[in-house]
């Protein structure tokens, strides 16, 4: 039996005054939801108006029978939600519209209720709430299914483009920067009792989101929680800030090798970026270009000089190698002693031992270059960190 408010069946009145209610709902939606104000006029007066009318008719049937519609009876709402998803209307905006529509009907009809109809009003409120509980999942499913289809299509297109760029069969639309990335574990990935896979995926999502935020165009990538490749459109003028922000968002240490590429040179740049990363990762987190690791990079290439160079420092113990590296980095014995937590005299003694064993004096400028190259060759050959 239909609800009766103000002495009149609600379902009959809603259908009789349907055009007026449609206009009221449309006006209220466009006023309260700014996103609808930006839709084309032909869409508002066409598709959106038809959806409002269909929804009100369905609700009138609910008022007449006091029974909720089945999902099949609300299929048109699912189809409408899919179209909104295709147009890029946010899902919260889509769902808000249905709540606004029910509220408009409530605000117009319920104030006319007579004292003896209070029971009807309460029953109507309960049914309206349950109606929205039915509508919300139907609309959400239609919207999300379409978004997933669009996401799959976009991901497939991006993958095809990325593959073409990396194998050299396609050119980019403009210059790019190829980033080869090594991503350290997030602390949660190393915490007992925490699902490391979930923590890694969350880290990766934050990383990708931050990369996209810094680019006006899509960032093509082939990334896992441990790293991979990313192709950033444009030049590398702001790359230091980008890498810093990405590392902060991921909350993980990043080692990034960057190589700028012309439209036809992405494949070659990607190969070089991977090679630079292989060298740079031994030196710790940070942003590296080829010019930052020229010596290590060159020594990592196949060369007859690699073994003889590494042999120069082969007689040195690990302790002497560490002292030599720190001394060459710091440039004098006192800062080196501070970093090594030893007395400056100990540094002097170790440097004399280096000179005795290698016949190269670290305190003589003419010997420094060869010693540095020998240390780099040693790291390149053994894969030890810098």
Automatic annotation (TrEMBL):
<dbReference type="InterPro" id="IPR025751">
    <property type="entry name" value="RsbRD_N_dom"/>
</dbReference>
<protein>
    <submittedName>
        <fullName>Helix-turn-helix domain-containing protein</fullName>
    </submittedName>
</protein>
<dbReference type="InterPro" id="IPR051448">
    <property type="entry name" value="CdaR-like_regulators"/>
</dbReference>
<dbReference type="Pfam" id="PF14361">
    <property type="entry name" value="RsbRD_N"/>
</dbReference>
<dbReference type="InterPro" id="IPR042070">
    <property type="entry name" value="PucR_C-HTH_sf"/>
</dbReference>
<dbReference type="Pfam" id="PF13556">
    <property type="entry name" value="HTH_30"/>
</dbReference>
<feature type="domain" description="RsbT co-antagonist protein RsbRD N-terminal">
    <location>
        <begin position="20"/>
        <end position="158"/>
    </location>
</feature>
<dbReference type="InterPro" id="IPR025736">
    <property type="entry name" value="PucR_C-HTH_dom"/>
</dbReference>
<feature type="domain" description="PucR C-terminal helix-turn-helix">
    <location>
        <begin position="320"/>
        <end position="377"/>
    </location>
</feature>
């Amino acid at each position: 039996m239909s609800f009766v408010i103000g002495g009149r069946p609600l379902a009959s009145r809603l259908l009789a005054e349907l055009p007026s209610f449609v206009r009221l709902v449309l006006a209220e939606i466009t006023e309260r939801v700014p996103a609808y104000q930006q839709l084309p006029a032909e869409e508002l007066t066409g598709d959106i108006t038809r959806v409002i009318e269909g929804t009100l008719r369905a609700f009138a049937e609910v008022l007449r029978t006091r029974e909720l519609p089945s999902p099949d009876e609300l299929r048109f709402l699912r189809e409408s939600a899919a179209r909104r998803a295709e147009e890029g209307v946010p899902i919260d905006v889509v769902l808000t519209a249905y709540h606004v529509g029910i509220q408009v009907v409530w605000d117009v009809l319920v104030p006319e209720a007579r004292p003896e109809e209070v029971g009807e009003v309460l029953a109507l409120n309960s049914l309206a709430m349950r109606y929205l509980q039915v509508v919300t999942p139907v609309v959400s499913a239609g919207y999300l299914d379409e978004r997933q289809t669009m996401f799959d299509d976009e991901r497939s297109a991006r993958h095809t483009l990325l593959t073409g760029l990396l194998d050299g069969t396609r050119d980019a639309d403009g210059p790019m920067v190829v980033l080869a990335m090594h991503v350290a574990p997030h602390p949660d990935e190393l915490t007992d009792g925490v699902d490391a896979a979930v923590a890694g995926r969350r880290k990766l999502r934050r990383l990708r989101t931050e990369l996209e935020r810094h680019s006006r165009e899509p960032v093509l990538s082939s990334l896992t929680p441990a790293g991979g490749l990313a192709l950033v459109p444009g030049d590398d003028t702001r790359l230091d800030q980008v890498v810093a922000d990405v590392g902060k968002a991921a909350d993980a240490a990043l080692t990034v090798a960057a190589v700028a590429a012309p439209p036809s040179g992405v494949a070659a740049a990607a190969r070089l970026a991977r090679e630079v990363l292989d060298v740079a990762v031994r030196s710790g987190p940070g942003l590296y270009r080829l010019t930052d690791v020229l010596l290590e990079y060159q020594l990592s290439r196949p060369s007859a000089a690699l073994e003889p160079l590494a042999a120069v420092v082969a007689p040195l113990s690990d302790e002497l190698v560490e002292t030599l590296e720190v001394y060459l980095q710091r440039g004098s014995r006192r800062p080196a002693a501070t970093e090594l937590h030893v007395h400056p005299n100990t540094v002097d003694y170790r440097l004399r031992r280096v000179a005795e064993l290698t016949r190269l004096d670290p305190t003589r400028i003419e010997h420094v270059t060869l010693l540095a190259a020998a240390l780099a060759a040693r790291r390149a050959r053994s894969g030890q960190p810098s």
